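Q: Please design a sequence for this.
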C-alpha cells in the first residue's frame, strides 16, 4: 500500500519545514508537551525517514519515562505517563485492516490515550478521520535533514 505523499509547498526552501534530527526531536518534544489526550497521531513516511525518532520525542515530551523502543516486532508498545496511557503502534507488518482486531485496535481507539501510529495507511478504513497526520520525507541530496508536514 503506498503512503499518501504531500506536495511540498514551493516556498519550503525559505521556510522551516526542513529539520535536522535534533530539530525534529525538539519539535516532537514540544508537541508532546502540548498534547491533551485523547489524541491519535499518524506518522507517515518511507522506511528509515525518522518516524520512530519522532514518536520517541513526542513520548518524551508527553512524559513517558520508560525507554521508548520501536514496536516493529511487537506491533504495539504501551507506556505510562501522568496524563494518560500512550500506545505506539507500528502497522508495517500488518497485511490487512482485518488484522487490527487481534492488536486490540478498537479498544485502543476508545482508551482516551495518546496513540501514535506508524504506517497508518495499512489501517485502511479503520483509521478514524479525526487524527493529526504528520508526514516525514527525505530531501534529495541532503541526508542530514527531513521535510516535516503536520496537520
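A: Design:
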Amino acid at each position: 500500500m503506498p503512503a499518501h505523499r504531500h506536495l511540498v509547498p514551493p516556498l519550503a526552501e525559505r521556510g522551516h519545514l526542513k529539520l535536522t534530527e535534533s530539530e525534529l526531536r525538539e519539535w516532537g518534544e514540544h508537541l508532546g508537551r502540548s498534547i491533551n489526550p485523547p489524541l491519535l497521531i499518524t506518522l507517515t513516511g518511507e522506511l528509515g525517514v525518522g518516524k520512530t525518532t519522532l514518536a520517541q520525542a513526542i513520548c518524551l515530551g508527553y512524559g513517558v519515562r520508560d525507554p521508548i523502543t520501536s514496536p516493529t516486532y511487537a506491533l504495539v508498545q504501551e507506556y505510562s505517563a501522568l496524563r494518560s496511557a500512550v500506545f505506539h503502534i507500528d502497522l508495517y507488518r500488518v497485511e490487512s485492516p482485518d488484522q487490527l482486531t487481534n492488536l486490540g485496535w478498537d479498544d485502543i481507539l476508545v482508551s482516551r490515550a495518546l496513540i501514535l501510529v506508524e504506517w497508518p495507511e495499512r489501517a485502511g478504513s479503520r483509521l478514524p478521520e479525526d487524527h493529526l497526520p504528520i508526514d516525514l520525507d527525505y530531501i534529495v541530496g541532503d541526508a542530514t535533514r527531513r521535510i516535516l508536514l503536520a496537520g
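Q: Thanks. Anything notable?
A: The radius of gyration is 15 Å. The domain at 18-150 is CATH 3.40.50.300 (Rossmann fold).
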